[in-house]
Design a protein that fits this description.
heterotrimer; A mainly alpha; B alpha+beta; C alpha+beta; A: mainly alpha; C: alpha+beta; 8-stranded mixed beta sheet; two-stranded antiparallel sheet; 20 helices; 10 strands; about 50% helix
Chain lengths: ~280, ~425, ~525
């Protein structure tokens, strides 16, 4: 990150490569939409045409989704758009499937959720992988996927699947124990432990702070885990910090020893808790 | 002799923040020892501190101002008013010190430190500015348990008609971004909202140290990666922790390709009419050209849908840029005064409630009877120790003269780095 | 097409079978209850599909019964799912005669439906249709069709319809239907939207308890924790002598027309109470359905964000133990899937000072003023001491009417009085009478003791009297202190028994020896 000490109003010249990339990305496929009310219907037709090119269909999807931000002007075709997205859930193009599932899931569409759940229960019918399915289902705490997530977390060897399972479990008090155990387990990959830390906060903030204090004091923990612990401590309360002399001492040491990011973090915590 | 200097007419340290707009200040003698006669001639100078920046002084809230200021201060403690404004932005707090000296003397008789706090392009923030901003954001979110949930819970389907598809789109989002900014400033006064200039590449924004990085053309399920020390890694605004945001463009060196700024500014033409300018909200009818909507859908993740967009903190940087564009347009076309018909879009019969100039805006007005949504989270709009506008329950009309160009008291307490007064 | 699981398939088949039966309406009505076994451990999406199918079945039967109408109106007032909304809108058209009060719910549904607009297939379980994206209707279309069915009663929706037509924000066929609705409205049709539900329907959504069930001992298992983290028992929270307005909710509810609205209205209830000077004499309480997730910090933030005042008098609560007992006591309309609420109805209760349910408001939107009025009436009644039932009062008067000596009469009156069995028109009259009798009683006892010497029965009598005094003049009205009351009654009864026994013995022996008196008593 470049340091900046002067107010700048002039446009800075872009490096040549960035200019080329910018103009390349700015050249989105031309859809030749008709003027007036028919444009969105035309975009729907392009989107649904499996014979058309992927870039054009993706562009049509972008135009339609952007149009939803005009809210009531979109109402006239909202049902047709949802119907089109549901069809895309089974499209041969994985990018379109994924995009459609994401949009439908964020709108808590029952069809998308039912399809994803079915895919988790019967992998031969899945339209996306289990990690992606869990991620899409995580937008709705009421999707009914908590027990599936717990099973997948226990059984899967795929860390992306397990991470997404943890995200779903973060809204399930019954999973508290599993999450705590994963956080404490040094054999778990760092990314799993970090996601466990994030998941634990809503379910049991006290447990997270307990773990964070221990992690910072534990010299056998890898730097990333110690940093995660320190970051978690930033959300803790001052009374807890003032009770833990060993933790205060360790954070004091970290202000001058260790990597630059650890020092900055330790200083920030010290400033916040007036250590 | 000793004097006391108040910035924004307030003794509070929390009020010592300037923008490009003229801020009322006052000075008075607190210890008259050494003053002969009924008043003392005082000179105000400025010194750049570690945070940098510079200011201008004036006797009235007009003109360009000067680097120093002289005035006569009564011995009896009566206050004397003057004005200051920011000339160049600070990067930390404090940025500038005002020193008062008796004319002809070198000893200081009073000082006050302040910061010129400006909304900047996110890619130009220093590491310190960046870190303080994300720390304040993370604290306000508090891993899902904080009051950021009110913001995410307001920009949802049930409240959508209050803010979209009608003329109030720009004033409403101006107030929304300002509300969050003030909440963050209550945590760290040195913080200002920043904007994502999405018609340009912004590689410095999408890094693990800042707003995180997703997967280019990814499935829309990737949690953006943050550095281990980035507190945003504990972000939570929906049922599940983390931020999902896969870009459809190369964040390392490209922009999402919305309408260019020049083209967006030209939307109001001919006549620089607001009713045409506000079409930047979504694709222009019959075209793919789009400024605001395209920025949203350039990612696959919560930010691409109205009900979930505000769960992603990038939403506020995006809308800060939309607001900046409006500010640029207002400046270029002289559209700060709501009495000017072209500055807004009035209608007969009136627009839906919430979109007419005299309407108060939900949720800050607390109105929960139809046709308003039946809930209103978060209470009134956060106050500022620096300014009183737009008030706790702002009307649409309160969100135009944001720098007090028409009337000083309209100053809402923010400025953009590239939109002068 | 996504398959639904075996349970849902069987459920759908069973509904299809039941709908052919002659008593289908009653059977389908039981399936509308959230507590039905079919919904246990079913996810929210599954329950949505199941309930939608039940509503479709109800709508296929001729003439929807009054008891079923609240279930339909509920989906219009709190719409959150396209299929349920479409099914409910269509089902309402099975009512024999539309009522003006339906316009309120339909107006709300009309405003919300566009944001829920999606392809829906009615007639196929789950509403999906037989191909992705297939549909034969949508929520907006069904709501508009039901508005058209209202005929002149749709007049209060005219302005909303005009707005939609003006903005063009609907599909062409919907716009056409709306134009037809407007054209069909008589010019003089009333535009006000204030009609109340007819009593025949309203009785299913709010009522007063004819008798109040005493608090079950099972509730002793209930432990509660408030938004400040303070623990208490059911008795401590509810048996305070003050009425309590109780609403159920949970912070993860994703229907903005249910829990968020309920809690916001509870805030309005608090403001109404304060405006009427009742803020310190009537309590308000929100209880979460989701005690594991809704920690005190969550509760506090949720309540404050929605305008609640939170303190010792107005609390948000979770049950840290005994939620099942609580659920049974209130007969809560809620179902769960694993740890999460999968479906619930709106439910608000007014409890009396002893924690007994006195009034219930559920399923449909309740009016804050109505709930406050009910609680205020209770508070007024408890202040007057008119707590006992009419039968108890008659029994007390009858006991008083039996001729007795004045002292015995005073004893019985005071026992009946402080046990709550006797009611008086005004609290001061009872206290004056009680004081007089007790004074006469004590004076008589002391005079007797002076003549005979202090005896055991005198000690009992004075002790019982002291307890009666304590209960009548020290303990606040309405607060029940059973052990104290009955100890006092027992002491006074002992005094009577011992005294009578002593006399009986003396009569038998023919001798009564009293101090300073050597008369023989035959």
């Amino acid at each position: 990150m470049r340091k900046h000490t002067r107010r700048t109003t002039a446009t800075r010249p872009k490096p040549r490569r960035a200019r080329a990339a910018a103009s390349a990305d700015a050249k989105r496929p031309e859809l030749a939409l008709q003027a007036g009310d028919k444009a969105l219907s035309q975009a729907l037709a392009i989107l649904g045409d499996t014979e058309d090119t992927l870039p054009r269909r993706m562009e049509a999807l972008r135009v339609l989704q952007a149009a939803t931000f005009a809210e009531n002007q979109f109402d006239a075709i909202r049902a047709d758009y949802t119907a089109a997205l549901r069809k895309l859930v089974h499209d041969p193009q994985p990018q379109l499937r994924q995009r459609a599932l994401g949009l439908l899931s964020r709108g808590r569409d029952d069809y998308a959720q039912a399809t994803l759940l079915e895919g988790l229960r019967h992998p031969d019918r899945a339209v996306v992988g289990p990690g992606d399915a869990l991620s899409y289902l995580s937008y709705n705490a009421h999707a009914g996927v908590q027990s599936v997530a717990r099973s997948l977390f226990k059984e899967s060897k795929d860390h992306v699947v397990r991470e997404q399972a943890l995200r779903v479990m973060a809204s399930d008090p019954a999973s508290r124990g599993v999450i705590r155990a994963a956080l404490a387990d040094k054999k778990e990959p760092v990314s799993i432990r970090q996601m466990s830390a994030a998941a634990l906060h809503a379910l049991d903030p006290q447990a997270l702070q307990d773990w964070a204090g221990k992690a910072v004091l534990d010299k056998t923990e890898p730097d990333d885990i110690v940093a995660t612990g320190l970051t978690a401590i930033q959300f803790g309360d001052a009374a807890r910090m003032s009770d833990d002399a060993a933790l205060r001492k360790r954070i004091g040491e970290m202000r001058t020893k260790g990597s630059g990011r650890m020092k900055r973090l330790a200083k920030s915590i010290s400033a916040k808790h007036k250590l | 002799m000793k004097v006391e200097i108040e910035i924004n007419d307030s003794p509070q340290a929390a009020a010592r923040y300037l923008t490009w707009a003229w801020s009322p200040c006052r000075i008075r003698v607190t210890d008259p020892a050494g003053i002969t006669g009924t008043s003392a001639a005082v000179r105000l100078d400025q010194t750049a501190l570690s945070g940098g920046g510079s200011i201008r002084f004036a006797s009235t809230a007009t003109g360009a101002g000067a680097a120093t200021h002289s005035l006569s201060v009564p011995r009896d403690g009566t206050t004397v008013s003057f004005f200051v404004r920011g000339l160049t932005a600070s990067t930390a707090d404090p940025g500038v010190q005002i020193t008062a000296r008796q004319t002809g003397a070198t000893a200081s008789v009073g000082t006050v430190s302040l910061m010129v706090r400006i909304r900047k392009d996110a890619t130009t923030l220093t590491n310190g500015e960046r870190d303080r901003l994300i720390a304040a954001l993370a604290q306000f979110n508090n891993q899902g348990l904080g009051r950021f949930a009110d913001f995410a819970g307001t920009h949802v389907s049930a409240g959508s008609l209050e803010a979209h598809g009608r003329p109030g789109f720009l004033p409403w989002h101006r107030a929304f971004v300002l509300d969050l900014e003030r909440e963050l400033q209550a945590i760290d006064r040195s913080v200002a909202m920043t904007y994502w200039r999405f018609d340009r590449p912004a590689p410095a924004l999408f890094t693990p140290q800042f707003m995180g990085r997703g997967t280019f053309n990814g499935p829309g399920t990737t949690q953006v990666t943050f550095a281990a020390t980035n507190p945003l890694r504990f972000w939570r605004a929906g049922p599940a922790p983390g931020i999902t945001r896969d870009p459809a463009f190369n964040v390392g060196g490209a922009s999402p390709g919305p309408l260019s700024q020049a083209a967006a500014l030209a939307l109001g033409n001919p006549g620089a009419l607001y009713r045409n300018f506000r079409r930047l909200e979504s694709p222009l009818p019959g075209t793919q050209h789009d400024y605001h909507g395209m920025a949203h859908v350039s990612f696959s993740g919560p930010i691409d849908s109205i009900p979930t967009a505000a769960q992603d903190p990038l939403f506020f940087f995006l809308h800060c840029n939309v607001d900046r564009l409006w500010a640029v347009w207002q400046k270029q076309q002289g559209r700060f005064d709501v009495a000017v018909a072209a500055a807004y879009e009035t209608a007969a019969p009136p627009h839906r409630v919430g979109h007419n100039l005299g309407d108060t805006m939900w949720p800050w007005n607390g109105v929960t009877t139809p046709p308003r949504p039946n809930f209103a989270l978060g209470g009134t709009l956060a106050s500022s120790p620096c300014v009183s506008a737009p008030g706790p329950k702002p009307q649409v009309s309160d969100c135009f003269d944001y720098q007090g160009a028409i009337k000083l008291s309209n100053n809402m307490g923010f400025s953009y780095d590239d939109v002068p007064l | 097409m996504p398959l639904v699981d075996e349970h849902e398939q069987r459920f759908a088949a069973e509904v299809d079978r039941v709908v052919q039966l002659s008593d289908a309406a009653e059977l389908l009505l039981t399936l509308c209850d959230e507590r039905h076994a079919a919904y246990v451990d079913r996810s929210a999406p599954a329950i949505t599909r199941m309930r939608g199918w039940v509503l479709e079945a109800l709508g296929r039967r001729p003439f929807l019964a009054d008891a079923a109408i609240p279930y339909v109106l509920e989906e219009l007032e709190a719409p959150s799912h396209p299929y349920l909304l479409a099914a409910a809108a269509r089902c309402l058209r099975a009512v024999r005669t539309p009522h003006a009060s339906f316009a309120v719910a339909l107006a709300h549904a009309f405003r919300v439906a566009p944001s829920l607009e999606a392809p829906v297939t009615l007639g196929l379980y789950g509403g999906f249709g037989d191909a992705p994206g297939a549909s034969n209707t949508s929520p907006v279309r069904e709501v508009v069709a039901t508005i058209a069915w209202l005929g002149p009663l749709a007049a209060p929706l005219a302005e909303d319809i005009h707005d939609t037509l003006r903005s063009g924000a609907a599909a062409p066929d919907v716009l056409l239907a709306l134009e037809q609705v407007l054209a069909a409205l008589p010019p003089d049709a009333p535009r006000e939207c204030c009609a109340e539900l007819p009593k025949s329907i309203a009785r299913f959504v709010h009522w007063q308890a004819a008798t109040r069930r005493d608090v079950d001992v099972a509730l002793d298992k209930v432990r509660l924790e408030d938004h400040r983290g303070n623990s208490s028992s059911f008795r401590t929270q509810f048996r305070t002598g003050q009425p309590t307005i109780v609403a159920f909710f949970y912070t993860r509810c994703d229907n903005p027309f249910k829990c968020t609205l309920t809690v916001a209205k509870l805030g309005q209830v608090q403001r109404l109470l304060h405006a009427r000077g009742l803020g310190e004499s009537i309590r308000t309480m929100g209880i979460t359905y989701d005690p594991e997730f809704d920690t005190p910090a969550q509760l506090s933030r949720y309540g404050v964000d929605r305008g609640l005042q939170l303190n010792a008098q107005h609390v948000l609560i979770r049950a840290t133990a005994g939620f099942e007992e609580l659920k049974q006591y209130f007969a809560l309309g809620v179902s769960f899937f694993e740890s999460l609420v999968s479906r619930h109805r709106i439910e608000v209760f007014v409890l009396d000072g002893k924690g007994r349910i006195a009034a219930t408001f559920h399923r449909l939107n309740w009016r804050e003023e109505q709930v406050v009025d009910r609680a205020a009436a209770l508070a007024e009644g408890e202040k007057a001491g008119t707590v006992a039932s009419p039968m108890a009062s008659l029994a007390g008067l009858a006991a008083l009417a039996v001729p007795k000596c004045p002292l015995c009469w005073a004893t019985y009156a005071s026992v009946l009085g402080f046990s709550g069995a006797l009611t008086f028109p005004a609290p001061w009259a009872l206290r004056v009478l009680a004081f007089t009798f007790l004074l006469v009683y004590v004076t008589g006892m002391l005079w007797r003791a002076r003549r005979t010497g202090l005896r055991l029965e005198h000690a009992f009598a004075v002790g019982g009297c002291a307890v009666a005094m304590f209960n009548t003049f020290v303990v606040p009205a309405g607060v029940d202190t059973p052990p104290v009351v009955w100890v006092g009654a027992a002491l006074m009864a002992c005094a009577s028994v011992v005294g009578v026994a002593r006399r009986g013995k003396a009569s038998a022996s023919g001798v009564v020896i009293e101090r300073g008196d050597s008369r023989l008593v035959p």
